[in-house]
TrEMBL record:
Bilayer-crossing regions: 121-141, 161-182, 243-262, 274-296, 316-332, 338-359
InterPro entries assigned to the protein according to its UniProt record, in alphabetical order: Citrate_utilization_prot_B, NarG-like_sf
Protein name in UniProt: CitB domain protein
Top-level taxon: Bacteria
Keywords: Membrane, Transmembrane, Transmembrane helix
């Protein structure tokens, strides 16, 4: 039935003219044909074992392989056909260009997919500025913030109900948009990866790869390449700080929600309550991770990745950093007259982060996890080429 659905979609796309591969997809297919003949990098990461199971590379295959790539740089620095060779093989860059295209192609609503091309540092910061400005206007409408009593807390500025009305719709929309996008992506790559259903062993293996960021080890355990041929685990460690910092902050919010609605314990929570411990640990993780990733991006070799996507990367890193930094500032300013300004900045940063999640760099983690799931399923199936010849 899945094969029939795929054929139906292909026929519909052909009728609408949507099946024509882009230049980026054509370039990945060209490079994969050369890599499939060479196979020197076969042991580096998940991309190359998946590549060897294919003789041709259709649109879904290319989207699948592109989202398996972690841009560690190992294949680029090992390749005898890399620039300035006339073959000009640069797998990390070619894959990066297709990845951002997949986010746009599968975005929901489809019209917002173009935001991936423009969601840069400037737009992220401008969005934070205007949201903070309008929030501060709301504070001014209720009286001069500098006249607030020294013991005032953030619920005295924005009542809990108002915060719920502000953030829940944005969060639910972002979650729905991401879920629909990744469902569309999975629907297409499932047929391209044997069509076999997900199993517990495959899910466990994929979860292990995601949680350990396995494929940021360069395929040999020594780590990624940055500005030269030397290996370093710094990129993997900073990714871990950012990833787990975000999860801890989300856990802090979730625990605080349980405290408020089920235990009758209203915020703000004092140290050493569980929401505070989780939030502080997550905030430090985000500060360290985002600062390190920004530093590495400034130093990285120019042949790595797609330079055109730097603004999108920087915008996401800046929002995460601003959320964590303003969160700590909010804690330090509690009970002072600076609280309203800092609270408006923090709420604006969080809202901007939520609003851009489906259309920014955050999507790469979701799509990559989906690709790893299908990779772990496919590798347990008989190869397509086993009976060829």
């Amino acid at each position: 039935m899945q094969v029939l659905d795929a054929l139906t979609r292909t026929a519909r796309d052909l009728a609408n003219g949507n099946i024509v591969p882009s230049l980026a997809e054509t370039e990945v297919a060209r490079q994969m044909q050369i890599c499939n003949a060479c196979r020197y990098c076969e042991g580096f990461c998940a991309v190359f074992p998946a590549m060897t199971r294919r003789l041709e590379f259709g649109k879904a295959d290319i989207h699948f392989l592109a989202n398996l790539c972690h841009d560690c740089g190992a294949c680029l620095h090992a390749c005898q056909y890399a620039p300035p060779h006339e073959f000009a093989i640069n797998v990390p860059r070619a894959m990066a260009r297709v990845r951002v295209q997949t986010y746009a192609d599968y975005a929901w609503p489809s019209a917002l997919g173009k935001l991936y091309q423009h969601n840069g540092l400037g737009i992220s910061l401008v969005l934070v500025f205007f949201l903070a400005f309008f929030l501060f206007l709301a504070v001014l409408a209720n009286g001069a913030p500098w006249k607030m009593s020294m013991g005032a807390d953030f619920y005295d500025i924005f009542p809990h109900g108002i915060l719920v009305l502000l953030f829940v719709p944005v969060f639910l929309f972002a979650s729905l948009a991401l879920a629909i996008g990744v469902r569309r992506f999975l629907r297409d790559i499932t047929v391209a990866t044997s069509g076999a259903p997900l199993t517990r062993p495959a899910a466990a293996q994929a979860a292990d790869a995601v949680l350990r960021l396995k494929y940021l080890d360069g395929g040999h355990g020594a780590g990624c390449h940055d500005e030269d041929d030397a290996h370093t685990l710094a990129r993997r460690r900073f990714h871990h700080c950012t990833f787990y910092g975000f999860l801890l902050c989300f856990a802090a919010t979730s625990v605080a929600t349980i405290y408020h609605y089920f235990l009758g314990l209203a915020a703000p929570y004092d140290w050493p309550s569980l929401p505070k411990i989780l939030g502080v640990a997550g905030g430090f993780g985000l500060l360290i991770g985002t600062t390190g990733l920004c530093w590495l991006k400034l130093r990285r070799h120019p042949l790595h990745g797609d330079q055109a996507q730097k603004p999108m990367d920087q915008g996401f890193i800046a929002l995460l950093f601003l959320v964590s930094a303003s969160g700590f500032a909010l804690w330090l300013c509690r009970g002072t007259q600076a609280l309203p300004m800092v609270l408006c900045l923090h709420l604006a940063a969080v809202m901007a982060l939520f609003a851009t999640l489906p259309y920014g760099k955050f999507a790469h983690g979701v799509f990559r996890s989906a690709a790893l799931l299908r990779y772990c399923v496919e590798r347990r199936q008989p190869g397509r080429l086993d009976h060829c010849g």
